[in-house]
Amino acid sequence: MNQLETLQTNQKRISDLVDIKTLQEILDAFTTTTGLMANIVDVEGISIFPRKGIKKCCKFCRIIYNLEGGKNRCQAAYKRAGKQAALFGEPYIFRCPSGLIEWAAPIILNAEHVGTIICGQVLMWEPEEFFWIELRKMNQPLTDDFEELFEAVGELAIVTGNQVQASAYLLYVVANYIMKAGWENYEQSQEFAMQRTLYHAEIENRKNLEKNHEPVLASFLIDEGEMLANLQSNQKKSKAYLEGLISSLRYEAHQNLLLMRGKMTELLVILSRVASQMGLEADIFQGINSQVILQIYQTDSIESIGVLTSRAVDAYLEAIDKSVTKPENPNIVLMIDYIVNHYTENLTVDDIADSACLSTGYAGRIFKEQMGMPIMDYVLTVRVEKSKKLLLNPHYQIQTIAESVGYGDAGYFTKVFRKAEGITPTQFRKVHKR
């Protein structure tokens, strides 16, 4: 993907996920309340908003923007600041090429940096003689006339370090919350679209069979043994299998509401029997079925019935996954929770045993019996899985990732990762390069 395509993808992603007008109103309200300018740029440092209607620039910056090369210089600075903010996963305070204080807060979606909140255009001290000298020097590549620029400095806000940190964090939290909500809605719509695609593909397949006079079963039968085999495989395969069943049964209903209700109810009942064979507690699948089946019989939309059944499938898969991996011993649960919450630290077996108030020897023995591996092997597994998610983001350096999962040395982290995965972190990144 070339630079232009990457730019268009990121711009489209943000605009698809959230209402740009809503974001603009939030930033305008922030500016009105605090007096601080705010903007959102894509990964190339270019604003996602139309040039008109966004309170994004103070007079000083408008002058810089209108100078030849000024706009490109600002965008390049925002691009660099955004990358730094994404690298550390928190607001990044910097001094722009024209001499003002600004900060960048990363917008992260699905472990990918998709944009940056730029805020500031302020000073953190009263201008003194050296400031004017430095300002002139920094902007000489753009202009020889500094009278208007110096005059605009008088309109800049002077803020404290605490104000900078507070406002940066506020925008970071608000924007990422909004984007996360938008991302969840987007994923949901994609899931529904996939379901509709499967359904229409099944219809076309059945039409072709009928057209060619091939026999088509009058009723689609669900094979419990086949369902059990599929649910015992990975979650992705299980999901595809169950969505296929929904599509097939939906076709068999022939747009008949009563038949659709009956077939989806039958699917959920059979799914509950299979889940019971896999050890899922009865109250879990009974709770899923009672709620969803009630909703199925309350709606008159065949489309909604399909969506409700798909959501029930997700609930089953999540519950099955938890029941398979969740240990029964509460002491094991305590130790695993401690590992998950402290894997970034220099963990020892003693620390983990202490979290469950157990002796080191006893903790190690029951952990291996329950989980099938020593405690520190489990710690390694958690760290490697966490690092794999970080490696998908090309902005993170290997050293940074190593430190973020509890290894101070990148070389040792690489050795551990290669032992666990069979390839180095760099090779893993290349294989999974977007």
From TrEMBL:
<dbReference type="InterPro" id="IPR020449">
    <property type="entry name" value="Tscrpt_reg_AraC-type_HTH"/>
</dbReference>
<dbReference type="InterPro" id="IPR018771">
    <property type="entry name" value="PocR_dom"/>
</dbReference>
<protein>
    <submittedName>
        <fullName>Helix-turn-helix domain-containing protein</fullName>
    </submittedName>
</protein>
<dbReference type="Pfam" id="PF12833">
    <property type="entry name" value="HTH_18"/>
</dbReference>
<dbReference type="Pfam" id="PF10114">
    <property type="entry name" value="PocR"/>
</dbReference>
<keyword id="KW-0805">Transcription regulation</keyword>
<feature type="domain" description="HTH araC/xylS-type">
    <location>
        <begin position="333"/>
        <end position="431"/>
    </location>
</feature>
<dbReference type="InterPro" id="IPR009057">
    <property type="entry name" value="Homeodomain-like_sf"/>
</dbReference>
<dbReference type="InterPro" id="IPR018060">
    <property type="entry name" value="HTH_AraC"/>
</dbReference>
<dbReference type="InterPro" id="IPR018062">
    <property type="entry name" value="HTH_AraC-typ_CS"/>
</dbReference>
<keyword id="KW-0804">Transcription</keyword>
<keyword id="KW-0238">DNA-binding</keyword>
